[in-house]
Amino acid sequence: MTPQASTPAYRRLSVEERRVQLLDAALSLFAHRQPEEVSLDDVAERAGVSRPLVYRYFPGGKQQLYEAALRSAADELRLCFDEPREGPLLARLARALDRYLAFVDQHDTGFSALLRGGSVVETSQTTGIVDGVRRAAADHIMRHLDVAEAGPRLRMTVRMWITAVEASSLIWLDEAKQPPVDELRDWLVEQFLAVLTVTARRDPQTAALVEELAADL
């Protein structure tokens, strides 16, 4: 008798593994389509499971799944700015931007929907998740600046720059990802130093930082 061909053993996923699988499927869809264009059937098909199984893990339906996927993406974005405090500050900032822009490149349409808002699934909850990413990025940058207690002008400058990074990323996507990403990264680093230099004219704390950063050039 011809031996039967062996078939791969089925492995039952744990609750957490299945949840991660569904979130990965949702994120892959939200990355390239507007949230309102993605259905639970789409997520089930991408994950290779049934629609009832998606509901079992996300009984709140699409809204709950979207918010969970958004939190997952937000966690990844927060890590972009989690750079070791070693070496010149501007070089650290460039490495953080490399990771941030790689995320933007990978998630293009989803990133645009995330920051532009206007989605039918946007709520105060989702807005809070996005704002949490901005605040986390500002906190990381403040730690890199090694400022014990930043004054209002310095805090405002850092948060304005983060807003400029977001806006530049969206425009970059609209412009078919031009200029090249390396040029965009360097440009954003230069803008960071430029806005600090402007603030330094009015704020002694920022002026001291600019003097320190000049040594990185």
Automatic annotation (TrEMBL):
The keyword Cell cycle does not apply. Gene3D superfamilies: Tetracycline Repressor, domain 2. Residues 39-58 bind DNA. Keywords: DNA-binding, Transcription, Transcription regulation. Signal peptide: none annotated. It comes from the Bacteria. The keyword DNA-binding applies. Residues 16-76 form the HTH tetR-type domain. PANTHER family: HTH-TYPE TRANSCRIPTIONAL REGULATOR RUTR, TRANSCRIPTIONAL REGULATORY PROTEIN (PROBABLY TETR-FAMILY)-RELATED. This is TetR/AcrR family transcriptional regulator.
